Amino acid sequence: MNYSQVYFGKPLGQLMYEDIEHFFSTEKEETDQLEFKSYNSNGKLEDKLSGLIEGITAFLNSSGGVLIWGAPEGKKNPIQDRKERVFSGNLTSLPLAIEKDWLISKVSDKIIPLPAGIRVQLLRRDDYQVCVFEIDESRYSPHQTDGKYYMRIDGQKKPAPHHYIEALFKKISYPQLEAYIRPSSFNKIDKGYSLKIYFNFFNFSPFENEEYFNFRVLVSRGMFMRGAPVSRGYAVPGFSKRGTEFSPVDRLDILHYGQGHGVTEDIEFYNEDIDNPNGVASIMIFFGGKKSPMKMNKYEIKLINLSIENIMKPVTLFTVVFENMLMSEYYSSTGKSQLIEQEGYVR
Protein backbone atom coordinates (compact mmCIF):
# COMPACT_ATOMS: atom_id res chain seq x y z
CA MET A 1 0.00 0.00 0.00
CA ASN A 2 1.20 3.53 -0.78
CA TYR A 3 1.03 4.91 2.76
CA SER A 4 3.11 7.96 1.82
CA GLN A 5 0.43 9.04 -0.64
CA VAL A 6 -2.15 8.76 2.12
CA TYR A 7 -0.25 10.75 4.76
CA PHE A 8 1.93 13.12 2.73
CA GLY A 9 0.02 13.47 -0.53
CA LYS A 10 2.81 12.04 -2.71
CA PRO A 11 4.66 8.72 -3.25
CA LEU A 12 7.64 7.85 -1.07
CA GLY A 13 10.10 8.39 -3.93
CA GLN A 14 8.93 11.99 -4.37
CA LEU A 15 9.14 13.01 -0.72
CA MET A 16 11.42 15.88 0.30
CA TYR A 17 12.76 16.98 3.66
CA GLU A 18 10.33 19.92 3.59
CA ASP A 19 7.36 17.56 3.33
CA ILE A 20 8.22 16.00 6.69
CA GLU A 21 8.79 19.43 8.21
CA HIS A 22 5.37 20.51 7.00
CA PHE A 23 3.80 17.27 8.30
CA PHE A 24 4.99 18.08 11.83
CA SER A 25 4.03 21.75 11.64
CA THR A 26 0.88 20.66 13.48
CA GLU A 27 0.62 18.19 16.35
CA LYS A 28 0.53 14.54 15.32
CA GLU A 29 -0.23 11.38 17.33
CA GLU A 30 0.97 7.87 16.61
CA THR A 31 -1.59 5.41 15.25
CA ASP A 32 -1.63 1.76 14.21
CA GLN A 33 -0.18 2.92 10.86
CA LEU A 34 2.14 5.70 12.07
CA GLU A 35 5.18 5.57 14.36
CA PHE A 36 7.58 8.42 15.15
CA LYS A 37 11.11 8.00 16.47
CA SER A 38 13.28 10.96 17.36
CA TYR A 39 17.07 10.83 17.19
CA ASN A 40 19.28 11.72 20.13
CA SER A 41 23.04 11.86 19.63
CA ASN A 42 23.60 10.41 23.12
CA GLY A 43 24.08 6.66 23.40
CA LYS A 44 25.09 3.96 20.95
CA LEU A 45 23.74 3.83 17.42
CA GLU A 46 23.26 0.05 17.73
CA ASP A 47 20.82 0.57 20.62
CA LYS A 48 18.85 3.05 18.53
CA LEU A 49 18.74 0.59 15.65
CA SER A 50 17.28 -2.09 17.94
CA GLY A 51 14.25 0.06 18.77
CA LEU A 52 13.88 0.99 15.11
CA ILE A 53 13.92 -2.63 13.97
CA GLU A 54 11.39 -3.62 16.65
CA GLY A 55 9.06 -0.96 15.26
CA ILE A 56 9.48 -2.23 11.70
CA THR A 57 8.85 -5.81 12.85
CA ALA A 58 5.61 -4.68 14.53
CA PHE A 59 4.38 -3.17 11.25
CA LEU A 60 5.26 -6.35 9.33
CA ASN A 61 3.24 -8.41 11.81
CA SER A 62 0.30 -5.99 11.77
CA SER A 63 -1.28 -3.98 8.96
CA GLY A 64 1.78 -2.06 7.76
CA GLY A 65 2.39 1.68 7.94
CA VAL A 66 4.95 4.48 8.02
CA LEU A 67 7.83 4.92 10.46
CA ILE A 68 9.61 8.28 10.56
CA TRP A 69 13.10 8.25 12.11
CA GLY A 70 14.26 11.74 12.97
CA ALA A 71 10.81 12.93 14.06
CA PRO A 72 10.41 15.68 16.70
CA GLU A 73 10.61 14.60 20.31
CA GLY A 74 7.29 13.45 21.71
CA LYS A 75 5.59 15.56 24.35
CA LYS A 76 2.78 14.83 26.80
CA ASN A 77 -0.61 15.35 25.24
CA PRO A 78 -2.00 18.72 26.41
CA ILE A 79 -5.44 17.15 26.82
CA GLN A 80 -5.69 16.21 30.47
CA ASP A 81 -5.43 12.50 31.31
CA ARG A 82 -4.42 11.47 27.79
CA LYS A 83 -1.49 9.03 27.79
CA GLU A 84 -0.60 9.44 24.10
CA ARG A 85 2.25 11.76 23.18
CA VAL A 86 2.04 14.44 20.51
CA PHE A 87 4.80 15.24 18.04
CA SER A 88 5.37 18.63 16.43
CA GLY A 89 8.10 21.17 15.73
CA ASN A 90 11.73 20.71 14.74
CA LEU A 91 12.94 17.41 13.33
CA THR A 92 15.81 15.61 15.09
CA SER A 93 18.40 15.14 12.36
CA LEU A 94 20.12 11.78 11.77
CA PRO A 95 23.90 11.60 11.23
CA LEU A 96 24.78 12.10 7.57
CA ALA A 97 27.01 9.03 7.84
CA ILE A 98 23.87 6.85 7.83
CA GLU A 99 23.36 5.64 4.27
CA LYS A 100 20.44 3.85 2.65
CA ASP A 101 22.22 0.60 1.70
CA TRP A 102 23.82 0.28 5.14
CA LEU A 103 20.47 0.85 6.84
CA ILE A 104 18.62 -1.68 4.67
CA SER A 105 21.34 -4.25 5.36
CA LYS A 106 21.16 -3.70 9.13
CA VAL A 107 17.36 -4.00 9.17
CA SER A 108 17.27 -7.10 6.95
CA ASP A 109 19.95 -8.92 8.93
CA LYS A 110 18.07 -8.57 12.22
CA ILE A 111 14.58 -9.65 11.14
CA ILE A 112 13.63 -13.33 10.78
CA PRO A 113 12.35 -14.49 8.35
CA LEU A 114 13.90 -12.11 5.83
CA PRO A 115 11.35 -9.34 5.30
CA ALA A 116 9.98 -8.02 2.02
CA GLY A 117 7.87 -4.95 1.40
CA ILE A 118 10.10 -2.46 3.24
CA ARG A 119 10.89 0.75 1.36
CA VAL A 120 13.32 3.36 2.69
CA GLN A 121 13.87 6.97 1.74
CA LEU A 122 16.57 9.20 3.24
CA LEU A 123 15.66 12.87 2.89
CA ARG A 124 18.42 15.47 3.13
CA ARG A 125 18.63 19.22 3.19
CA ASP A 126 22.06 20.76 3.75
CA ASP A 127 23.42 19.09 6.92
CA TYR A 128 20.07 17.68 8.02
CA GLN A 129 18.66 14.23 7.36
CA VAL A 130 15.53 12.27 8.20
CA CYS A 131 14.49 8.74 7.24
CA VAL A 132 11.04 7.50 6.20
CA PHE A 133 10.18 3.79 6.14
CA GLU A 134 7.12 2.52 4.30
CA ILE A 135 6.27 -1.01 5.42
CA ASP A 136 3.69 -3.40 3.99
CA GLU A 137 1.84 -5.99 6.00
CA SER A 138 3.89 -9.13 5.48
CA ARG A 139 2.58 -12.23 3.72
CA TYR A 140 5.26 -14.22 5.56
CA SER A 141 4.56 -13.18 9.13
CA PRO A 142 5.17 -13.63 11.97
CA HIS A 143 8.58 -11.93 11.98
CA GLN A 144 10.86 -11.66 14.98
CA THR A 145 13.95 -9.73 15.99
CA ASP A 146 16.31 -10.85 18.75
CA GLY A 147 13.94 -13.73 19.46
CA LYS A 148 10.91 -11.50 20.15
CA TYR A 149 7.70 -10.82 18.24
CA TYR A 150 6.01 -7.41 18.11
CA MET A 151 2.73 -6.02 16.87
CA ARG A 152 1.00 -2.63 16.69
CA ILE A 153 -2.16 -2.08 18.66
CA ASP A 154 -3.83 1.03 20.04
CA GLY A 155 -1.21 3.20 18.28
CA GLN A 156 1.73 1.52 20.03
CA LYS A 157 4.34 -1.16 19.44
CA LYS A 158 3.81 -3.99 21.91
CA PRO A 159 5.12 -7.53 22.43
CA ALA A 160 2.76 -9.81 20.53
CA PRO A 161 0.75 -12.21 22.75
CA HIS A 162 0.89 -15.94 22.13
CA HIS A 163 -2.56 -16.21 20.53
CA TYR A 164 -1.70 -13.49 18.03
CA ILE A 165 1.51 -15.22 16.98
CA GLU A 166 -0.31 -18.54 16.79
CA ALA A 167 -2.90 -16.95 14.49
CA LEU A 168 -0.15 -15.56 12.24
CA PHE A 169 1.54 -18.94 12.02
CA LYS A 170 -1.77 -20.53 11.07
CA LYS A 171 -2.60 -17.57 8.83
CA ILE A 172 -5.83 -17.07 10.69
CA SER A 173 -7.30 -13.77 9.62
CA TYR A 174 -10.30 -11.87 10.84
CA PRO A 175 -11.97 -8.55 10.03
CA GLN A 176 -10.38 -5.46 11.57
CA LEU A 177 -13.29 -3.89 13.42
CA GLU A 178 -13.04 -0.52 15.17
CA ALA A 179 -15.50 1.55 17.16
CA TYR A 180 -15.63 5.26 17.94
CA ILE A 181 -18.04 7.64 19.59
CA ARG A 182 -19.06 11.14 18.59
CA PRO A 183 -20.75 13.25 21.26
CA SER A 184 -23.31 15.41 19.50
CA SER A 185 -24.83 17.62 22.16
CA PHE A 186 -25.52 18.12 25.85
CA ASN A 187 -28.84 19.61 26.87
CA LYS A 188 -30.04 20.85 30.24
CA ILE A 189 -33.07 18.98 31.52
CA ASP A 190 -35.04 19.28 34.77
CA LYS A 191 -33.21 16.46 36.52
CA GLY A 192 -29.71 17.03 35.08
CA TYR A 193 -28.25 16.84 31.58
CA SER A 194 -28.97 14.78 28.51
CA LEU A 195 -26.18 13.66 26.17
CA LYS A 196 -26.84 12.69 22.57
CA ILE A 197 -24.08 10.38 21.38
CA TYR A 198 -23.30 8.52 18.15
CA PHE A 199 -21.83 5.03 18.39
CA ASN A 200 -20.03 4.23 15.13
CA PHE A 201 -18.54 0.90 14.02
CA PHE A 202 -16.34 0.19 11.00
CA ASN A 203 -14.79 -2.75 9.16
CA PHE A 204 -11.31 -1.79 7.90
CA SER A 205 -10.44 -5.14 6.25
CA PRO A 206 -10.62 -4.69 2.44
CA PHE A 207 -11.29 -8.33 1.56
CA GLU A 208 -13.05 -9.72 4.59
CA ASN A 209 -16.62 -8.99 5.59
CA GLU A 210 -17.86 -9.47 9.13
CA GLU A 211 -20.96 -11.55 9.75
CA TYR A 212 -23.52 -11.21 12.52
CA PHE A 213 -21.98 -8.05 13.95
CA ASN A 214 -23.24 -7.10 17.38
CA PHE A 215 -22.36 -4.72 20.22
CA ARG A 216 -23.25 -3.82 23.77
CA VAL A 217 -22.93 -0.51 25.66
CA LEU A 218 -22.82 -0.06 29.44
CA VAL A 219 -23.01 3.19 31.43
CA SER A 220 -21.94 3.31 35.07
CA ARG A 221 -23.97 6.41 35.98
CA GLY A 222 -27.12 7.82 34.44
CA MET A 223 -29.18 5.77 32.02
CA PHE A 224 -30.27 5.54 28.41
CA MET A 225 -33.33 7.71 28.01
CA ARG A 226 -35.25 5.14 25.94
CA GLY A 227 -34.26 2.42 28.38
CA ALA A 228 -35.72 3.99 31.52
CA PRO A 229 -38.41 1.73 33.01
CA VAL A 230 -41.87 3.01 32.18
CA SER A 231 -44.94 2.92 34.36
CA ARG A 232 -45.94 -0.53 33.06
CA GLY A 233 -42.74 -1.96 34.52
CA TYR A 234 -40.71 -2.69 31.41
CA ALA A 235 -38.42 -0.75 29.07
CA VAL A 236 -37.98 -0.59 25.32
CA PRO A 237 -36.52 -3.89 23.93
CA GLY A 238 -32.74 -3.81 23.74
CA PHE A 239 -32.27 -2.05 27.08
CA SER A 240 -31.70 -3.77 30.41
CA LYS A 241 -30.34 -3.31 33.94
CA ARG A 242 -32.82 -0.48 34.48
CA GLY A 243 -31.62 1.41 31.44
CA THR A 244 -27.87 1.28 32.04
CA GLU A 245 -27.21 -1.30 29.30
CA PHE A 246 -28.06 -1.25 25.62
CA SER A 247 -27.59 -3.85 22.89
CA PRO A 248 -29.45 -4.00 19.56
CA VAL A 249 -32.27 -6.50 19.32
CA ASP A 250 -31.17 -7.63 15.85
CA ARG A 251 -27.57 -8.32 14.79
CA LEU A 252 -26.24 -6.85 11.57
CA ASP A 253 -25.93 -9.72 9.08
CA ILE A 254 -23.01 -8.29 7.08
CA LEU A 255 -20.58 -5.45 7.83
CA HIS A 256 -18.70 -4.69 4.60
CA TYR A 257 -15.30 -3.03 4.23
CA GLY A 258 -15.64 0.73 4.50
CA GLN A 259 -19.22 0.44 5.64
CA GLY A 260 -20.07 2.40 8.72
CA HIS A 261 -22.72 1.15 11.09
CA GLY A 262 -23.99 3.48 13.76
CA VAL A 263 -26.73 4.20 16.24
CA THR A 264 -27.68 7.31 18.16
CA GLU A 265 -28.79 7.23 21.76
CA ASP A 266 -29.49 9.76 24.52
CA ILE A 267 -27.98 9.24 27.98
CA GLU A 268 -29.34 11.18 30.95
CA PHE A 269 -27.11 12.17 33.87
CA TYR A 270 -28.90 13.20 37.04
CA ASN A 271 -28.26 16.00 39.53
CA GLU A 272 -27.30 13.69 42.40
CA ASP A 273 -24.40 12.34 40.32
CA ILE A 274 -23.42 15.73 38.95
CA ASP A 275 -23.28 17.27 42.42
CA ASN A 276 -21.02 14.49 43.69
CA PRO A 277 -17.38 15.76 43.55
CA ASN A 278 -16.21 12.18 42.87
CA GLY A 279 -18.82 11.53 40.21
CA VAL A 280 -17.27 9.91 37.11
CA ALA A 281 -19.41 8.23 34.47
CA SER A 282 -17.91 5.41 32.44
CA ILE A 283 -19.15 4.37 29.02
CA MET A 284 -17.97 0.92 27.91
CA ILE A 285 -18.54 -0.58 24.47
CA PHE A 286 -18.12 -4.28 23.69
CA PHE A 287 -18.29 -5.31 20.02
CA GLY A 288 -17.47 -8.17 17.67
CA GLY A 289 -18.92 -10.68 15.25
CA LYS A 290 -18.81 -14.24 14.03
CA LYS A 291 -15.22 -14.01 12.73
CA SER A 292 -13.54 -11.37 14.86
CA PRO A 293 -12.47 -11.47 18.52
CA MET A 294 -14.33 -9.16 20.83
CA LYS A 295 -12.92 -5.68 21.43
CA MET A 296 -13.81 -2.96 23.88
CA ASN A 297 -13.68 0.82 24.33
CA LYS A 298 -13.87 2.81 27.55
CA TYR A 299 -14.56 6.52 28.03
CA GLU A 300 -15.00 8.62 31.15
CA ILE A 301 -16.83 11.88 31.88
CA LYS A 302 -16.26 13.91 35.04
CA LEU A 303 -19.84 14.83 35.78
CA ILE A 304 -18.89 17.69 38.06
CA ASN A 305 -17.62 19.48 34.93
CA LEU A 306 -21.09 19.55 33.40
CA SER A 307 -22.40 23.07 33.24
CA ILE A 308 -24.07 25.45 30.82
CA GLU A 309 -20.68 27.03 30.09
CA ASN A 310 -18.78 23.90 29.03
CA ILE A 311 -21.40 21.78 27.25
CA MET A 312 -21.08 23.68 23.96
CA LYS A 313 -18.17 21.41 22.96
CA PRO A 314 -19.13 18.05 24.47
CA VAL A 315 -16.11 16.19 23.08
CA THR A 316 -13.82 18.13 25.45
CA LEU A 317 -15.57 16.58 28.45
CA PHE A 318 -14.53 13.04 27.48
CA THR A 319 -11.40 11.15 28.45
CA VAL A 320 -10.45 8.20 26.25
CA VAL A 321 -9.29 5.46 28.62
CA PHE A 322 -8.73 3.05 25.73
CA GLU A 323 -10.19 2.31 22.30
CA ASN A 324 -10.37 -0.87 20.19
CA MET A 325 -8.61 -3.02 22.75
CA LEU A 326 -8.84 -6.78 22.37
CA MET A 327 -10.55 -8.45 25.31
CA SER A 328 -7.48 -10.67 25.66
CA GLU A 329 -5.32 -7.55 26.05
CA TYR A 330 -7.69 -6.21 28.69
CA TYR A 331 -7.61 -9.46 30.65
CA SER A 332 -3.82 -9.60 30.56
CA SER A 333 -3.54 -6.01 31.84
CA THR A 334 -6.27 -6.02 34.53
CA GLY A 335 -7.11 -9.62 35.26
CA LYS A 336 -10.51 -11.20 34.69
CA SER A 337 -11.67 -10.48 38.25
CA GLN A 338 -12.08 -6.77 37.52
CA LEU A 339 -14.39 -7.45 34.60
CA ILE A 340 -16.43 -9.95 36.63
CA GLU A 341 -16.86 -7.43 39.45
CA GLN A 342 -17.73 -4.75 36.89
CA GLU A 343 -20.61 -6.92 35.72
CA GLY A 344 -21.87 -7.11 39.31
CA TYR A 345 -21.18 -10.76 40.04
CA VAL A 346 -20.35 -11.80 43.60
CA ARG A 347 -16.99 -13.53 44.03
Automatic annotation (TrEMBL):
Q: Does the keyword ATP-binding apply?
A: yes
Gene Ontology molecular functions: ATP binding
Query: What's a Pfam family in this record?
Result: SLFN_AlbA_2
Q: Which Gene3D superfamilies match?
A: Schlafen, AAA domain
- Give the record's keywords alphabetically: ATP-binding, Nucleotide-binding
InterPro entries this protein is in? Schlafen_AlbA_2_dom, Schlafen_AlbA_2_dom_sf
Q: Which residues form the Schlafen AlbA-2 domain?
A: 30-160
State the protein's name: ATP-binding protein
Tell me which species this is from: Hymenobacter tibetensis
